[in-house]
Structures are given as C-alpha cells and as structure tokens.
Amino acid sequence: MVTYIDAATAPLKNTGAIRLYGADDFEGMRRACQLTARCLDALVPMVKPGVTTAAIDNFVFEFGADHGAIPATLNYRGYKYSVCTSINHVVCHGMPDDKPLRDGDIVNIDVTFLLDGWHGDSSRMYPVGNIKRAAERLMEVTHECLMRGIAAVRPGARTGAIGEAIQTYAEAERCSVVRDFCGHGVGRLFHDSPNILHYGKANEGPELREGMIFTIEPMINLGKPHVKVLSDGWTAVTRDRSLTAQYEHTVGVTATGCEIFTLSPAGLDRPGLG
Ligand code: MF3
Ligand code: CO
Ligand code: CO
C-alpha cells in the first residue's frame, strides 16, 4: 500500500511513504537545482580532449564551495567524489580519475548539490571533441526519452506512465532501457521514495500527486540492456560494452503537470546537440 506524508512533519528517513512538499519547499528546490544547472552549464566549455575527470571533480567541488553548497555524493555510502563521470560504455557511477578525456568520447556528468538542506540532482551528456554519428543519435534519443517521461507527469497519472513513455520511444528507436537503476524521490533526502522506473506500463506504480518531487534519469543503451558493476563496487558498465547515455532532471509535480527545477538557465540542456 502506498502512503503519502506531509514533508513538513515526516521523519528525515526513507520510510517508503511518499513526501508531499509545499510552496516554500519548491522554492528551496528551485535554488538548489538551479545551482546544479549552473554548474553543469559552466562545465560545457571545460569538457574537451585532454581534460581529466579528476579536474572536473575538483571544479564541481569548488563551484559548490563558492556558492555554499556541498556535493551530496561526497562520502555518500563510501563514494569519494563530488561528481559521477561516466564515459562511453559506463552506464553510471563512473569515478573521476587522472585519465584525460579523448576525442570522440561521450561523458555523462552527474551533479547533486546540497544547498540549505535541499538536493538538486541533474546530469547531462557532453561530447568530447568530434563524436561519431551513432553517439550523437544515442544522446538525442536519450534526451528525448527524458523529455517524454517528463511530459507524462501530472497529478492522477501513475509513475508507470513515465516508464511507458520512455520505454516505448527508446525501443522504437532500436535502443534498450537499463533496468538496474531508476529515478527516485529527492528533496530533503538524496534518495527517497518513490522509485521512478524508466520502463513499464502506465497503470503501474503509485499515483502522482501535487507536491511530489523526484528525478527522472533514463539510461539508454545502443545494445542490450544488461549492466554489470565492476570490482570497484561502483562503476556500472554495459555487459556487451555497447555505448550508453543518460540525462537527468529533478521535477516537482504541480496542479497541472510539473516544473523542471534543473532546466539550464542558459539553454544548455543538451550540450553539443544544439
Ligand atoms: N546522482 C546519482 C543519481 O542520480 C547518484 C550518485 S550516488 C554516488 O541518483 F554515490 F554514486 F555518487
Ligand atoms: Co538521481
Ligand atoms: Co544524479
């Protein structure tokens, strides 16, 4: 059974109940999420052949510090970095290191800032130099998956409507949807109820209500959907080593649809795709 709970009185842990946030909470989320979006904007000119993901990690930490925010991933369940950097066949949770990005790579950069108690979680794909047409197409399909999932959000719909919209489009484009990771409630907590699956049927999952806040973050593969986690315990890769992409927004359910808190103020939501 699904229960909904007033975010103002709910305990600060994931009990399985779905938190409903109010107008002041939405304002707090707008601020945290716009800081995350501005950081992802600032990374656009930095992501070039030769730059290391460790330099990106350092930039994100400093950007947060300059604006009174902490990266929520830092020391999260033992994760040691301010950002996830997932290159080519890495699905998610790629860890920054000293290897330079190479011409033709595509990299997902996933930032979550914690600002004044609110979490702003978003990621985008960045092309490194000149990329192949197949990589560009995968990024276009994946961004369209995210936007179609967002378009399904309104009070009264179920979370499954988001998954169905994403899966239908991805598979029509001969791509596959990763099942092992999902979107999540977010707000006072980094990862909260409900889970937002990126596949499924519109009549599945809890009903969406005004005041819910969650992420949608589809991971879409050119090959098969299966992933494995490397022995470092974090890095998730496609089993068939096919190319993979992901975009993520944090959204809040409104009376008529939703508000995308993490939209780029500079219109850079799809770097390299115009
Ligand atoms: N930001 C990721 C998400 O979208 C979570 C990263 S958790 C970490 O949910 F520990 F890997 F950083
Ligand atoms: Co997320
Ligand atoms: Co994220």
Automatic annotation (TrEMBL):
Which parts of the sequence bind a divalent metal cation 1?
Answer: D110, D121, E248
Superkingdom of origin organism: Bacteria
Query: Where, in this chain's numbering, is substrate bound?
Result: H93, H191
Question: Which GO CC terms are listed, alphabetically?
Answer: cytosol
A single GO molecular function, which one? Answer: initiator methionyl aminopeptidase activity
| Keywords for the protein's UniProt record, in alphabetical order | Aminopeptidase, Hydrolase, Metal-binding, Protease
Residues the record lists as binding a divalent metal cation 2: D121, H184, E217, E248
Q: Name one GO biological process term.
A: proteolysis
Cofactor binding mode, per the note? Answer: Binds 2 divalent metal cations per subunit. Has a high-affinity and a low affinity metal-binding site. The true nature of the physiological cofactor is under debate. The enzyme is active with cobalt, zinc, manganese or divalent iron ions. Most likely, methionine aminopeptidases function as mononuclear Fe(2+)-metalloproteases under physiological conditions, and the catalytically relevant metal-binding site has been assigned to the histidine-containing high-affinity site.
Q: What is its EC number?
A: 3.4.11.18
Q: Which InterPro entries match?
A: Creatinase/aminopeptidase-like, Pept_M24, Pept_M24_MAP, Pept_M24A_MAP1
Which residues belong to any copy of the Peptidase M24 domain?
27-255
Its recorded reaction(s) are: Release of N-terminal amino acids, preferentially methionine, from peptides and arylamides
What's one Pfam family the UniProt record gives for this protein?
Peptidase_M24
Cofactors:
Co(2+); Zn(2+); Mn(2+); Fe(2+)
What does this gene product do?
Removes the N-terminal methionine from nascent proteins. The N-terminal methionine is often cleaved when the second residue in the primary sequence is small and uncharged (Met-Ala-, Cys, Gly, Pro, Ser, Thr, or Val). Requires deformylation of the N(alpha)-formylated initiator methionine before it can be hydrolyzed.
The entry sums up its family as follows: Belongs to the peptidase M24A family. Methionine aminopeptidase type 1 subfamily.
Q: Subunit details for this protein?
A: Monomer.
This chain belongs to the protein called Methionine aminopeptidase
State the organism of origin.
Rhizobium rosettiformans
Organism lineage? Bacteria, Pseudomonadati, Pseudomonadota, Alphaproteobacteria, Hyphomicrobiales
The protein's gene is named map
